[in-house]
Amino acid sequence: MEWYFVLALIGTGIAAGFINTTAGGGSMLTVPLLMFMGLPANVANGTNRIAILMQNIVTVRTFRQKKVLDYKEDFRLTIPAVLGSLVGALVAVEINTFLLEKIIAGVMVMMLLLVVLKPDVWIKERAGSVNAKPTFWQYLIFFFIGLYGGFIQIGVGFILLAGLVLGCGHNLVKANALKVFIVLMYMIFSLGIFIYNKQVDIRAGLILAAGNMFGGWLGVNFTVKGGAKYVRYMLIFAMIIVILNLFGVFG
Fold it and tell me: Which among 109, 133, 143, 199 is least buried, having the fewest CB atoms inside 10 angstroms?
């Protein structure tokens, strides 16, 4: 591998790790880079998961150290997400990716409006809902979120944040911590499926992971120190960029 590709992977990984941890959409940077380096789309999709896995090992540990995560209370929603991710990674379905991207963009536009027009929903926890046992509908929602994440990782961070904030009542700091925890749990299994099917470039994935891990660590510190208010600004910025990209503004 050429030295400039190594630098590109590490630098892009740092940016992606920070964005993934504070908001979402970092894979919009890394997957195209891997494809630009010559990896087929399916291999780029699988290779990116090494970086996501390693990034989230670091971020989960750091959130835990900062007492934002409690494994005993926060593991419940990982179960349906893991089950969904297995289905998403195993099922070979022919989809119109152009249409899928436009649907995701439309959902993100609605989510962006909610973040901008209803800031208190994202900043404050809703009393009485945070520590409650998840409902059947919450389990079902997170099963489908996991299914999407198992099939294609791009954009799943935004969808998880919406589920955790709007569906479960968490503020953005807690939601970001839970988001990376859930992704870590299902990524272990979905990555295994991609490796089994020989759709992972281990070397490129590990180099990318070095950047993602450092970027993720930076993202945790920004999230905890800045609080939900500043994380909301980061979320707005990231969603605008991703929406514009999905609508083809950047070519």
Answer: 133
Give me the count of residues in the chain: 251
In a domain, 115, yes or no: yes
Joined tokens for residue 239: 């969603």
Give me 104's structure tokens. Answer: 């995701």
Any residues with CB less than 8 A from the CB of 230 and at least 6 apart, and which? 222
Would you say residue 82 lies in a domain? yes
Q: Is residue 251 part of a domain?
A: no
pTM for this prediction? 0.78
- Whole-number Å distance between alpha carbons of 148 and 155: 9
Choose among 190, 150, 160, 156: nearest CA to 74. 160
What does R_g of the chain's alpha carbons equal in angstroms?
Answer: 17
- Name residue, tokens 């953005």: 172
- Domain around 64: 3-246
